[in-house]
Specification:
Layout lengths: L1 E4 L12 E9 L2 E8 L5 E3 L18 E6 L3 E12 L6 E9 L5 E9 L5 E5 L10 E5 L6 E5 L3 E4 L15 E4 L22
Antiparallel strand pairs: 1-6, 2-3, 3-4, 4-5, 5-10, 6-7, 7-8, 8-9, 9-13, 10-11, 11-12
Length: 196
């Protein structure tokens, strides 16, 4: 794994903008870079993720927030790996954090090259996340989905008071809609005319 933000209780740390390793399409936009912070947020694109610890602040565009709150890094910090092969790469970003400066646990964000799927996965042990936010935010920050564990999803409304750990092994998955079918043009011949 490659380290984005080091371990040892780094507070409000953020990585540099880093290549994804493939082109990831989100909301029809092609992204090739990302960054992540120690507060449970990553951002797609060439604008670096902020270090805001307060999850009641403004979302950055194209942000993924598996568990946004005021955390510090655990032993291994925030890391990533790229798996698979061209056309089917998967980027896995892992946060090893002391949740709200308390118990250590981990969670991940998975980005799939082949179909644009995004997954949030949660490890163990179960911890009290305090008052976190779990969300997926679009390029237009008003385009968001917020999750309240275990499985309630609100569209366009954020929940900044997640106080229940999603659960070890829990996964939230977002699958982009299939592209609209294109109409295939057909050859059209000039109309025939006749005279009688």
């Amino acid at each position: 794994a490659v380290t984005l933000v080091g371990g040892g209780c780094i507070d409000d740390g953020a990585s540099a903008v880093t290549p994804i390793g493939f082109t990831f399409t989100y909301e029809g936009v092609a992204y090739t870079d990302f960054s992540a912070n120690s507060n449970g947020v990553m951002r797609l694109g060439t604008t670096a993720v902020g270090t805001a610890y307060s999850n009641i602040g403004t979302f950055g565009s194209a942000s993924l927030a598996p568990l946004w709150d005021d955390h510090c890094t655990g032993a291994t910090g925030v890391t990533y790996v790229l798996t698979g092969s061209p056309g089917s790469y998967v980027l896995v970003v892992q946060w090893d954090l002391a949740i709200s400066f308390g118990s250590a646990t981990f969670f991940q964000a998975w980005l799939y090259e082949a179909d644009g799927v995004i997954e949030y996965r949660y490890g163990s042990p179960d911890v009290n996340p305090g008052s976190a936010t779990i969300a997926l935010v679009g390029a237009n920050t008003a385009n968001l989905q917020s999750v309240t564990p275990p499985s309630s999803v609100a569209v366009g409304t954020r929940n900044d008071n997640v106080a229940t750990w999603p659960g070890a092994g829990q996964m939230y998955q977002w699958t982009p809609p299939a592209p609209a079918a294109c109409i295939t043009p057909i050859a059209v011949s000039a109309p025939q005319t006749s005279t009688s």
